[in-house]
From TrEMBL:
Principal location listed in the UniProt entry: membrane
Xref: InterPro entries: 2pore_dom_K_chnl, K_chnl_dom
Domain Potassium channel: 67-146
A GO biological process held by the record: stabilization of membrane potential
GO cellular component entries: plasma membrane
GO terms for MF: outward rectifier potassium channel activity; potassium ion leak channel activity
Gene3D superfamilies associated with the record: 1.10.287.70
Name the record gives this protein: Potassium channel domain-containing protein
Membrane topology: Multi-pass membrane protein
């Protein structure tokens, strides 16, 4: 019996369930997750006119950068006290550790004996884990910002190829990172005519 057939044979009240499991003799257990909503329930917890709102990537970048710098400075204060480093060295350690570069020239070994060892280990773990998540998110958003800047630059430069370099004449092509041709221009499909 196929899975599609098993789904058809479900009682009507089970078709709206989030998760159904099917067992077919001599087959492994199959788990099928179905979408029970129209797609809007899990997309946003806001109802009304704010439902379709999306934040600007530049604002997200600015917020992430600010929060990342605050966490990095706070962690540098903790490491400068716990390791007896100056603030700049502790900030350097935070950046290389949070960005998972890790040169190994600075190690968090608890040079200050007044700090309890177990407490310092827990604080060190949470600072490194949280800082790495923040810096990774910042790098991810910054790559989107760089892509948008390159798209804007390419659009402003209006890079287009009027005369083909090969024998056959083709229509004007616009190049860029996801740029669309101007309105009214037919799109040249790659692969079919190339």
């Amino acid at each position: 019996m196929a899975i599609a057939d098993a789904e058809k044979n479900l009682p009507s009240n089970n078709r709206n369930g989030m998760c159904n499991s099917y067992t077919v003799p001599n087959r492994p257990v199959t788990l099928i997750v179905t979408d029970t909503s129209d797609g809007y329930d899990s997309a946003s917890s806001v109802d009304g006119p704010m439902e379709q709102w999306r934040p600007s990537v530049y604002k997200v970048f600015l917020c992430l950068f600010t929060f990342c710098m605050l966490v990095m400075c706070a962690a540098a204060c903790v490491y400068s006290y716990g390791e007896k480093w100056n603030f700049i060295d502790a900030l350097y350690f935070c950046f290389t550790s949070f960005a998972t570069i890790g040169f190994g020239d600075f190690l968090a070994l608890r040079a200050n004996e007044s700090v309890p060892a177990n407490l310092y280990r827990v604080i060190n773990f949470f600072l490194l884990a949280f800082g790495a998540c923040l810096v990774y998110s910042l790098f991810n958003v910054s790559s989107i910002v760089v892509k948008q800047m390159l798209n804007w630059l390419i659009k402003k430069m209006d890079i287009k190829m009027e005369k083909p370099m090969l024998c056959r004449k083709r229509k004007t092509r616009y190049y860029g990172l996801g740029l669309r041709p101007p309105p009214g221009m037919k799109i040249l499909m790659l692969g079919k005519n190339s």
